[in-house]
Amino acid sequence: MGGRSIAGIRAFLAILLPDTVRSALDAEIERLRPVGRDVSWVARDNLHLTLKFLGHVEPERLEHAVSGLALVAAAVAPFELAVVGLGAFPSPTRPRVLWAGLESGADAAARLARSVDGALAGQGFAPEERPFSGHVTLGRVREPGRDRHLASALAAGAGHRFGRLTVDRLALMRSELSPRGARYSIIAAWPLSASPSQGTTAAAR
């Protein structure tokens, strides 16, 4: 954390994506844009994989959470992750959130998210009520409803592959909202530093 005081902020934990993957996802957004006119699309530089959203956090709580997150990262080994395919929540036919999915490495990402959730629950943060469903948010529909053209475009991208990355760090992010959109910055990041065998053992606990 560099010793800096932290103002009350909107914060989340994330896996950050390399330029190559973000560029591929941004190109897919441009393909979808003509049929998704009522969608608020995520800016290229903001594309990421959220592990846990913390909301607005008081400085003291965030400071206390950091030590637990460092321990989580130290117990997890780096892993490979592939970003593949398109979908929507709650469904492609009535979409609210448009996303790119995960393939190989999805289970490891889910284990990391569960470890983060458990560590933060010990610091008084509410645990997640739903199982982790790893995805990269591409856009949010402003007025959800049936849209067969958008559903067809999502189906056409179901097999699109957006690249692979080595997940080797856990990032605590700050989200600042403005009329121009969200701006994200890194508060702190910790390397995933367990050996593969140590990471497998820790994940099994």
Provide keyphrases for this structure.
205 residues, alpha+beta, disordered C terminus
Overview of the structural elements:
It is built from five helices and nine strands; from the N terminus they run βαββαββαβαβββα. It has 205 residues and is α+β, with helices and mostly antiparallel strands. It has one domain (9-204): Cyclic phosphodiesterase (Cyclic Phosphodiesterase, Chain: A). A five-stranded antiparallel sheet has the order 2-6-5-4-7. The protein has a four-stranded antiparallel sheet with strand order 3-1-8-9, covered by helices on one side. A hairpin with a 2-residue loop joins β8 and β9.
Radius of gyration from the alpha-carbon trace, in angstroms: 17 Å
How is the biggest beta sheet arranged?
5 strands, antiparallel
Strand order of the largest sheet: 2-6-5-4-7
CATH architecture: Alpha-Beta Complex
Helical content band: 25-40%
Spell the H/E element sequence: EHEEHEEHEHEEEH
In short:
By secondary structure, the protein is of the alpha+beta class. 31% of the residues lie in helices and 38% in strands.
How does the SSE layout of this entry go?
Blueprint lengths: L8 E8 L2 H14 L6 E3 L6 E10 L1 H16 L4 E13 L2 E9 L3 H16 L14 E6 L6 H9 L4 E7 L1 E10 L2 E11 L4 H9 L1
Antiparallel strand pairs: 1-3, 1-8, 2-6, 4-5, 4-7, 5-6, 8-9
Helix pairs in contact: 2-3
